[in-house]
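User: My collaborator sent over this chain with a note saying "see what the structure looks like." That's all I know about it. Can you take a look?
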Amino acid sequence: MMKKFATCAACALVLQAGVSLAANTAETVTFAPYVGGATFLGNQHLETGPDFGIRLGYNLTDNWALEGVVDYASTKPTDYSAKIGMLRYGGDLLYNFLPKNSLVPYLAAGVGGMNFNGGGMPTGTKAVYNYGGGLKWFLTDGFALRADVRGLNYSYHKLYSTVEYTLGLHIAVGAPKPAPKPVEPVQEVVAPKATPVVVVSPAPTATLSANPANIEKGKTVTLTWSSQNAAGCLIEPGIGPVPPQGSKELTPSADTSYTLTCKGEGGSVTSGASVAVTQPVEEGGSKKAVAAGTRLTLDVQFDTGKSLIKPQYYNELKVVGDGLNEHKELKGTIEGYTDNVGGAKYNQRLSQRRALAVRTYIVKHFKVDAKRLVARGYGESHPIADNATAEGRAQNRRVEAVFENIPNVKAEHKAPAKKAVHKKVFKKKLAKKKVMKKK
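Assistant: Without extra context I'll predict from the sequence alone. Here is the result:
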């Protein structure tokens, strides 16, 4: 047995000659052959005998480690002559204190199995639990002498205990080598470079104005603009690219907000101007007349995607309401139209909602019989202007009213009003007739 132990120790020293590892370093594999003795406590009636084995482990961290163990102890009964062997195997969990010191104490606990053979001992594998600790004395990095004491608990008929005390070697291999210290580069003395001169392009400027800002429908407005430090300018809607400075006369058909955008090397800038378009005031009331066979284009504008009638268009609808009340023999159709912006189905539904909103307003506010007025939406199907321009699209977004006679209904003719005769004049004429008779 001693020869085997010496051989193991010699092999460990040979391996250690080419290995340089720190004690209990993480991610290392450990080998620990040992010899010692086993004392059987209690009423086992077994003598203390020699014990030897080996532990194979792995350091999870500098402190924690797992070990597998196989050892064999021989003994004999105290009351008769027989040879008995005890084989133990299992796994242990170790916690190493002060892992970087040369003396490293540790605690251990584990479970496993054991078998007795010979001497009339009970056969079969028995569970065994062990606990204890020890001390590692590192002579070099990765090589240490190790002393260990364990208490073994197991049961056959009742609970028994055995104490194992061993001496052995501890060899660690396979730890990653520490990274070499970075070599500091030799810094060359370089003359400071001249700070480059950064040329910052000036930001462009832009102004846009509309004169006058409020016009009647059909009148013109003059847009005037100017810019500096700009490579190109653009006015929307409906105008497009323009020179850096200039002016342009326009005739918007509805309220319009114009935006001037100028770009240059220093960035981009915008400026805006709005024009409000109002309906012309006509002397003697509206020139539009409601009659059979006529088609009136109603000056009613809606917000994008909306069908709400704005108050400034109420007077335009009053022409239709008053006309239908004056001409009871007429019936009408409110037709709604849109431009081609958006899908055809969407525009169809939008024109129907707008025509229906106009019809509902006239029926409600002018007490027109709902049977005399219908609403139809035609969407984008009947344009009267080019949809490629903003002005053309504005003309296509319209509401029209068409009138025709109701069959078998004649126009009402009012009888001329009789002149009122004053009572005093009547009495004078009556008195004069009486005087004439007396004569």
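A starting point for your reply to your collaborator: The chain has three domains: 2-173, 205-278, 295-405.
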